[in-house]
Structures are given as C-alpha cells and as structure tokens.
Amino acid sequence: MVATLGASRTLLLPGRPASLRLLTSTTTPYRTTLRASSTFPSRQKPPSKHSTTPGQPPTMPYSTTPSPPHGKYTYHLAASYIAKSRPFDPQTHLFQFNPYNRLQTQPKPGSKRPKSSRPESGQDAFFISQLGPSASSGEVALGVADGVGGWMDSGVDPADFSHAFCDYMASTASTSTPPPTARQLMQAGYEAVCHDQSIKAGGSTAIVGLLKSNGKLEVANLGDSGFILLRLNGVHASSEPQTHAFNTPYQLSVVPPSMLLRAAAFGGAQLMDQPRDAEVIRHGLKHGDVVVFASDGLWDNLFEGDILRIVSEVMKRSGAWRLNGERGCVVEEDLTSVTETKEGVTLQGMLATEIVRQAKLASMDPKLDGPFAKEVKKYYPHEVWRGGKEDDICVVVAVVEEEGAPVKAKL
C-alpha cells in the first residue's frame, strides 16, 4: 500500500525488500512481530506543518524546565468530537469531565465499553481519567488515539482498536498505584489491546498526557496527533508529528499472522511501532494556561495561529484572560467562576466545542487551504489539492488553575 492523499493514513511503507526477519519480544507479551530487515526511514522530526506565518520565529516545544510551582494545581477538562460523516452539534458532541462521576469517564476496571456506548467520534477516541485511586488528588490522565483508516482496506474497523485502547488506559490510570508515567500508561493500554482476543487487527496513533498537582505536564506522543500549550495570548509550546513518510504516521498495531506471512512472501513491511518509540515531553504549567490535545483532524485543518485566535477569543470573552492597560494580557485570579458549570456551560466546554466547530468548518471548505493542503503541495508539487481535509476530529481541552495564584501578566 502506498501513501495516498485521502483521509485514510497508510499501514505499509512502499518499496520495502521482501526479505524479512522474525523478532520475538522478550520483555513484552506482544504478538510475534515481523519487521523488514532494512531499517525504517530516519526518525528525525519533519518541519512543523503547524507554522502560522512565513518568517515567524518557531516556538520551542521541547523545553523541559518547569517554572517553580507556588501551590496546588487543579485542572478543568472537557472534550468535543465529531465523526467526519456527521453534522456537529456542540451540545451533543461534548463531554464534561467530573472526577467524581466515574461511570461517565471510563468503563469498569480492565474492561472496555460496548460499541453502542462509544462517543460519536468515528475512528478517533479519547479518554479523561483521574490519575490514581483517589479523586481528591486532582491529578488527571488524558489522551487521544486516532485509528489508522488504512485498515478498512483489510475489512477491519479502525475504531475498535482506538476506542478499546483509550478505555484500557483510562482503567489503568484510575487504579494503578503508584501512578504510571505517560509512556507506561501507553504501554499498559497497548498490551491490553494486544491481549484482547476480540481485536484481531488494527492500529492507531496515540498521545497521552498526565497533569500533576504540582503543575507539571508530562506527554508521550506517538504519531501525528498532538498537543499545544497556550499561555497569556501566545503559543508557549507544541508537539511535532512523528511520521515515517507523508501521511504515514508512527502507529501502534495489532497485525494478524496471515498479513505478516503475506508481507514476508510479497515484500513490504507492516508498521508496528512501540510505546518506547513515543517522544516524552515535559513542561511546567502556569495559572491560566490552556492545553489542547487533538487528533490530526484538528492539525490538518487549522494552523497554530488559528487555534490561538479561537482560544484567545473565548478566554477573553469569559474574562479568564483580559487586557489590563500597560500590563498587557493578564489571567483572572479566580477561575472557578468560569470553569464551573452554569446551565451546562463551562469555559473548558466552550473552548473544546468552538475549536471543533471551526475545525469542522475548515475541513469542509473547498477553497481555503489548510495545513494538509500545504503539506500536499510540499511533497507532491504536481498534485492538485484545495481546501481542507474531511476527517474525524477529537479535541480535549484542559484549563489550568493554581490555588491562590496571583494575577499574572504578559508584559
């Protein structure tokens, strides 16, 4: 299977030699894996597809030096989503996280939800869960998984992998003592999927985040889902996609033996990246920060500058961020008034739904070129691709609040 320009991402790398060697993991209970004897392309990060305007200084998304925390941090989270074939309804396609309402956030420990109870997010899946058995800690785990659409050519529903993967991670996050790291949580979810006999095949990208009570964010990212950290009307950090080739992201996979045998006989290599391949990123958070996790349905249709504009408009309209003369943009000291539910509306909910709404509109716009269109022109200059890219869209938003934080300004 070669790289295509449609919404479905590819499973196989083109042009791989037929000679394959058998590798059996000695450290994990994964199913037996075949890999090509030649190496995959260099895993250097490609240039960012999320840049805003030419000549703009790039952000530094890999800073690992957090600011010293002043007090306990709490997080206000919501998710919004929509399958590419469905119209978006901001009231229906919204999940408001409440750590004390366990039934809404995850299935029973060690299990996954039936298909009928999945959110209407298509092949995209997400989870938000308390981190550790005690909800009072305020620590949260979250993540997004994007099922690889190329599996449909083999008669496999990519949503089965991505949704089960997120369900297993949610269960692990809420019950494990001590709490896992972001990469360990990804590993646990992947192992559970590999042992799930109802999932014969499939794959997905994955981004997993941990929000700690000391104001630290830890992210494990594998593939082309990603996150952006917005602070005081600016982009403070963002992730870079991991890809083997154009439209071929890193991906976790369950591959049936028959497919491995065909690859051995006819050439090609099945992509089977591992959680250890995920890039781990750490940041210190501040009062008033907004963290956005999302599938490529967002990143392929909106630039970082677009997301910053949307978030800034909502934050300023709510009063969470406000202009204060010479002090510039400042954060409201008490965010509780805007993050708590008022007639079913919260700041985090408004942020999530507005981001998804505008990404959905951009995906269906045949004239306005988004990041994906620019990538096509870069890698395939003779191809004609105009407008957005219709795809499933899944967004998880966290608003950061520090207890007793002073008003902070961007000078």
From TrEMBL:
EC top class, as a word: hydrolase
Region described as Disordered: 23-69, 100-123
Keyword Cell membrane: no
Enzymatic reactions: O-phospho-L-threonyl-[protein] + H2O = L-threonyl-[protein] + phosphate; O-phospho-L-seryl-[protein] + H2O = L-seryl-[protein] + phosphate
Alphabetical UniProt keywords: Hydrolase, Magnesium, Manganese, Metal-binding, Protein phosphatase
Segments forming domain PPM-type phosphatase: 108-400
Biased composition (Low complexity): 23-36
EC number(s) per entry: 3.1.3.16
Segments crossing the lipid bilayer: none
Cofactors (names): Mn(2+); Mg(2+)
Stored InterPro entries: PPM-type-like_dom_sf, PPM-type_phosphatase-like_dom, PPTC7
GO molecular function, one term: protein serine/threonine phosphatase activity
Record-stated family: Belongs to the PP2C family.
Name listed for the protein in its UniProt record: Protein phosphatase
Organism of origin: Triangularia verruculosa
